From TrEMBL:
PTM-bearing positions, type 4-aspartylphosphate: D58
UniProt keyword terms in alphabetical order: DNA-binding, Phosphoprotein, Transcription, Transcription regulation
Top-rank taxon, per record: Bacteria
InterPro entries associated with the record: CheY-like_superfamily, NreC/VraR/RcsB-like_REC, Sig_transdc_resp-reg_C-effctor, Sig_transdc_resp-reg_receiver, Tscrpt_reg_LuxR_C, WalR-like
The keyword Methyltransferase belongs to this UniProt entry's keyword annotation: no
Pfam families with a match to the protein in the record: GerE (PF00196), Response_reg (PF00072)
Location of the HTH luxR-type domain: 153-218
Domain Response regulatory: 7-123
Listed Gene3D superfamilies: 3.40.50.2300
CDD domains: LuxR_C_like (cd06170), REC_NarL-like (cd17535)
Name this polypeptide is given: Response regulator
Amino acid sequence: MTAKVIRVVIADDEPLIRAGIRMILTSDPAIEVVAEASDGRQAVDLARAHTPDVVLLDIQMPVMDGLTALGELRRAAPEVRALVLTTFGEKENVLRALGQGSAGFLLKDSAPGELIGAVRAAAAGDAYLSPGATRHVVDQLATGRAAARSEEARRRIAELSERECGVLALLGEGLSNADAGRRLHMSEATVKTYVSRILSKLGCENRVQAALLARDAGL
């Protein structure tokens, strides 16, 4: 049986960035770049036209920025998974993107393998939390209402079993299902079942939100 090809739309206003991303992604025979957009409006229109599996969205774009485009995509094509591309200087925007249900985020200077892994994870229905970006987001979350967030997070995870808390802690580290399974000596399928159960119990839309909740709770 032929493996399903992951169809991707790249949205970034810099042609060289788009070319670099395309070159990296198409080095994987299981990924096809079906279209490129130079602004958020084009990204939404191309997603409607091509129905890709994944859209890579830069945050800072003309006409319509990536966060606005993310909201449009969620309404117009909820089955399309959106990964947000970011830089170290856009931490607050990343938090907003996660709150709007993005499938995760990664840094523009991520390693090629990380970019491919993020697209594969998003296409598989998972979310990708870039370990490099996570550290900076966690620093942002650590300021301000940290105590209130921590208390609320601990209250929410109180209903999880010990094993579920263990899986959630590994989500907080940014581990994939496969990596978490190896750490816990469980199959990837079993971990995926645990993750689905955890998301349901916590009321999280995706594993990225659950990972941030794990960090707030101190797991």
